[in-house]
Design a protein that fits this description.
Layout lengths: L1 H9 L2 H13 L8 H13 L3 E6 L3 E7 L2 E11 L25 H16 L6 E9 L7 H7 L2 H4 L4 E12 L3 E2 L4 E3 L2 E9 L3 E2 L9 H12 L1 H6 L6 E10 L5 E2 L2 E10 L2 H21 L3 E10 L2 E2 L2 H15 L4 E2 L10 H5 L4 E9 L2 H7 L15 H16 L2
Parallel strand pairs: 3-4, 3-5, 5-16, 6-15
Antiparallel strand pairs: 1-2, 2-4, 6-16, 7-14, 8-12, 8-13, 9-11, 10-12
Length: 394
């Protein structure tokens, strides 16, 4: 069986590369992935899976039932792109002002190919594999949309696994953490209101710009003085909007930003402290505040037992020393919503290009217009999906 799985996956490498390049050329944004979902659904139906579309607007599920009853494994892949004008110069580069600049084209490819391979092995499976293709990960809304549409009521699972290819990790390495993988990812909107007036007569106004400047400066103490030194926290002010002319003091200023943390406690501490500081600093300067916490996603935290199992399966694919713990990454992902409901693992799939290729093509990291990754990782991630399903449903 192990050699058979490796051979089945290896035989599909060229097809996987073609599939990835097709999805890469035609990316769609979150909750707009209509054509992407249609192509996935057609592939799954052709393989004999039961398919339901329209879960979480543009998400879909494919169900593969084995010959006998048994446990259920869910395999999750995200399918949306980003609003980025691609600058890679690749023959299959997107030209529609959107880009798969985070590897979701690879995630789709691996999950679809694993479904097709496992469909040919269903007589050997005792249980069910649910392939979940999630929309709108980049805006961290798709997971909750699918869950609100009854994903886990309709398709209960005993375990869930997924992968994020990661081009800072060498190809051939698989990172399987026993706890935190990615940080939480939340946004906030702060409106500071004062009293507008003439820029030459500031004493007749309450200047919200000055108040915002003090709030941003003071808020830097949240991470340095309120988060324990051994915990990770990031507070970023990304946008400031206010004013209409150089000689006008605005009535209000709007500030937006993000908060990242590896634990729920730190996540809450940063948000609560920011709201407190903003309110008190503004009050000291005679202004008022309105603070809105915009839910994103909690930290992605793996189940230790499932992580041990995935590490064992990954070792069969890349060798024992190449399946190991990896440093958590401060980006966010709403795979967290899956792991919070089902014992799960989100493994990091090494996808680094060689140094010569990176230098020659000016390749950059995730969410960059010059982002790219090593297609040699596709068979690795696909084989791990297949092996995990066969082992769990044996």
């Amino acid at each position: 069986m192990p050699d058979e799985i490796s051979d089945l996956v290896a035989a599909r490498k060229s097809e996987m590369i073609a599939t990835r390049r097709h999805f890469h050329a035609f990316p769609e944004l979150g909750f707009e992935e209509n054509e992407t979902a249609a192509v996935i659904a057609e592939r799954l139906k052709d393989a004999g899976l039961e398919v339901e579309t329209g879960i979480g607007q543009t998400g879909l599920v494919g169900v593969l039932r084995g010959a006998k009853d048994g446990p259920t494994l869910m395999i999750r892949a995200d399918i949306d792109g980003l609003p980025v004008d691609e600058l890679t110069g690749l023959d299959f580069a997107s030209t529609n002002g959107r880009m798969h600049a985070c590897g979701h084209d690879g995630h789709i490819t691996m999950a679809v190919t694993a479904a097709e391979i496992l469909a040919g092995m269903k007589d050997q499976l005792a249980g069910t594999v649910i392939f979940t293709f999630q929309p709108a990960e980049e805006v961290v809304q798709g997971a909750l949309a699918m869950i609100a549409d009854g994903l886990f009521e309709k398709y209960p699972a005993d375990r869930v696994i997924g992968t994020h290819l990661w081009n800072p990790i060498p190809t051939g390495i698989i990172g399987v953490n026993r706890a935190t993988v990615f940080a939480s990812a939340d946004q906030f909107r702060l409106v500071v209101t004062g009293k507008g007036g003439h820029g030459a007569m500031p004493h007749t106004t309450i200047d919200p710009v000055a108040a915002v400047a003090e709030i941003i400066s003071t808020a830097q103490t949240v991470v340095s003085r309120e988060v324990p030194p051994n915990e990770m926290g990031v507070l970023t002010f990304g946008q400031i909007h206010g004013g209409s002319a150089p000689n006008v003091i605005a009535d209000s200023v709007t500030v937006e930003g993000t908060v990242r943390a590896y634990t729920l406690e730190t996540r809450n501490t940063i948000m609560e402290s920011l709201e407190r500081i903003a309110s008190n600093v503004a009050a000291a300067m005679r202004a008022t505040t309105s603070f809105e916490r915009i839910h994103g996603a909690p930290p992605v935290i793996n189940d230790p037992e499932v992580a041990s199992w995935v590490t064992q399966q990954a070792s069969l694919v890349v060798g024992e020393g190449n399946a190991r713990e990896w440093e958590p990454v401060s980006v966010g992902d709403d795979m967290a919503e899956f792991n919070n409901r089902v014992p799960g693992v989100y493994f990091l799939l090494g996808a680094a290009l060689d140094d010569e290729t990176v230098a020659a093509r000016s390749v950059e990291g995730h969410h960059n217009a010059r982002f790219d990754w090593n297609e040699d990782c596709l068979p690795i991630g696909t084989e791990l999906f297949v092996r995990a399903a066969v082992d769990f449903l044996s």
